[in-house]
Amino acid sequence: MKILLTNDDGIQADGIKALETELKERGHEIIVVAPLTQQSATSHSISLFKPMKFTKFGENRYAINGTPSDCMILGSQVVFDKSIDLVISGINSGPNMGEDVLYSGTVAAALEAMFLGFSSIAISITDYENQNFRTAAKIMADLLDDEIHKLIGENEALNINVPNIEYSEIKGIKATQTGHRKYYNFVREEKNADGETLYFVGGDRPVWQNEENTDSAAVFDNYVSITPITPNFTKHDSYEKIKKWVEKK
Fold first, then answer.
1. Total domain count for the chain?
2. Distance between CA 80 and CA 146 in Å, rounded?
3. Which of 29, 47, 76, 194 is the most exposed place for a label (fewest CB within 10 A)?
4. 103: domain range?
């Protein structure tokens, strides 16, 4: 297949390099269009008011000084076309589960690719330390061998999370739903050299509810989680309630 790789960790990140290597070894044709620098938690932002440019990092490897969504928009206009069979965003450094899919640049790139008419997948590993990207890369390649890309429907993308363990320790694969998490002590306070108080978003690790059939429950039990996602923000039962209320006015 002809596969476009992107991410939010930047073109030099270990995750995208591991995935590129594995997929090439399996015989896929790879094009990389990724951010020039770290863009984690940029969500679906696009750069409306700054000029952007491509920097070439080798054959079929391009970086953009913008966000993951910028990479898909500019890339589709300048670098690649509809001959692309699949877009894969990742391998992300850290999980993208639960509500975090709304913040994730990795997931946003996959959704932007979906908006542009491409089949797309986001893939992440579930830890930030001692990362075993090779496991996730092999899992992704295995899933493509099994033709998972043919299951991707219209107006959806697949969000895959892989436990950060050895390939031989993976128990299997589970179809999952997006779970829920809560952050505690999410704002960190520090003092700079002048004694000023500075604040940083990001503190303790989230606490997961781990309900049955959720992404977090699967990966914490050493299963690969596959969740079909779609950006439909209409709450349909409440829509009917509001509609009836409006019609009475």
1. 1
2. 25
3. 194
4. 2-179+209-247
